[in-house]
Amino acid sequence: MTNTAEHGEEKSAQQRLRERRAAAYRTAERVLSRDGARGTLRDRLALLHEAAPQVHDLDEPADLYGDGVVAALEERVAGLLGTEAAAFFPTGTMAQQVALRCWAGRTGNPTVALHALSHPEVWERGAFGAVSELRTVRLTREPRLPTAEEVRSFEEPFGALMLELPLRDAGYVLPSWEELTEVVEAARERDAVVHFDGARLWETTHHFGRPLREIADLADSVYVSFYKSLDGFGGAALAGPKTLVDEAKTWRHRYGGMVFQQFPTALAALVGLERELPRLPEYVIHARVVAAALREGFAEAGVPWARVHPEVPHTHEFQVWLPYEPDVLAEAAALQAERTKAMLFVGGWSRGGPGLSYTEVTVSSAGLTWTADDVRAAVVDFVGRVAEVVSR
Fold it and tell me: Of 40, 73, 130, 194, which has the highest C-beta tally within 10 A?
């Protein structure tokens, strides 16, 4: 009974800290990124009220089972990625299962080669195998994308190679353009199709120095998200050859993805494509300024072990690692926001090892006003808050 009571008290304390951090974020006047999903229902409805008339004719009939504004969104995505067609899906989990199931039927091989840190392996509860009769094999566990040599030398056949671009759980990392093209060529040599898990593909153009069409053209099919990078309400799209997309729409129906009306999600996606997509390269460039200032700030503050990964971010998102327990850092983040109205670290902290934690940092429009000096000063203040929490 005592252990149960203590566990309940611990959960309650953690919940209270989460609620405190959320409240501090809402009242903070300065953050590096203002995530729309953390806003109120009124905020989200206001976005549609203000911006939707600029991206679509609101006097046309509402969508029914994927026509109207949903079809317009599909056409827009296919145009941006340079593919024959695209299909809207309510979730990326469903979109990718359907895509790889369709490819398995064509190749005759249900084995999907991917990274051990890829989204389906870490976050989807084994859905590929449990739901879609697919089998996954892991090319590598290293915190980088698979190499061409790893693809060529893998010891068993696979029908599809899935590449997450960027690889979020390794620190939003990307290969070089040359490395990516070599990996794709290696898969082709093995007669495997290539599918891009491009939930955040929108963010990659600055790093690769290539337009979206050229990046997407490397793959046989591409999935993109409308809430990651674009700040939409949700939803995803699968893009590729028309024959694949047509079959995917059949499986979408079978998987329960033919939602009666989806106009709020589709409109929010169109707003994101109009507003956020053109600004992503600007965010990436400024994220590099922020990352450098964070490194300098922690070094000047004398933190014994601090890392920004990657040192030069590949997208506008990256990791920060610090030698403290997660609860200490979460408490310090809340304190900083409450007392200064500036919140340097908005995201939660995860344990990365004994006495070691990491968080994810995103730099978007709200962060563009932060200078390098602002970031360094915020680091000094944050380190002081950490010392205050530790000394209690």
Answer: 73
Q: The pTM is what?
A: 0.94
Q: Contact at 8 Å (CB) between 134 and 110?
A: yes
Other beta carbons within 10 Å of 381:
18
Q: Where are the beta strands (DSSP E) in the chain?
A: 30-31, 85-89, 111-114, 135-138, 160-164, 193-198, 221-225, 236-240, 307-309, 317-322, 342-343, 350-353, 356-362
Q: Which position has the token pair 């009242």? A: 27
Joined together, the tokens standing for residue 130 give: 């449990």
Residue 74 contacts residue 85 (beta carbons within 8 Å): yes
- Among 273, 173, 285, CA closest to 232: 273
Q: Write down how long the chain is.
A: 392
Contacts of 10 (CB under 8 A, 6+ apart): none
How far is Cα 268 from Cα 97, in angstroms, rounded to an integer? 24
Residue 239 φ then ψ, to 5°: -125, 145
DSSP states of 44-73: HHHHHHHHHHHHS-TTSPPPSTT-THHHHH
